[in-house]
Amino acid sequence: MVKRLTSVFTDNMGNCIFTGSPYVERHHIFGGCYRGKSEKYGFVVPLRYDLHPNGARVNPKYRRQVDDYLKKMAQEYFERHYGSRDEFMEIFGRSYL
What we know:
Blueprint: E1 24-28, H1 35-41, E2 44-48, H2 60-81, H3 85-92
Antiparallel strand pairs: 1-2
């Protein structure tokens, strides 16, 4: 059974949030030990394969830009909807703003 991932940033997990392309990979904005927390808070987005920061085919010059942008976007969302910056840092380990 495939896990159904949802996002607070889009209702359409079948198209890239930046380009609209249907060729996507699901990206957990906070990976590693924070992957489950990304899922809990809806910090998962569909990205075209060549924009996916963790993907093998991403252009290295965009990897950091995309990753930083998404982390800042997620933290701003968290602070508007869920809690304070201190609470964010307690959950996700640091501030990205």
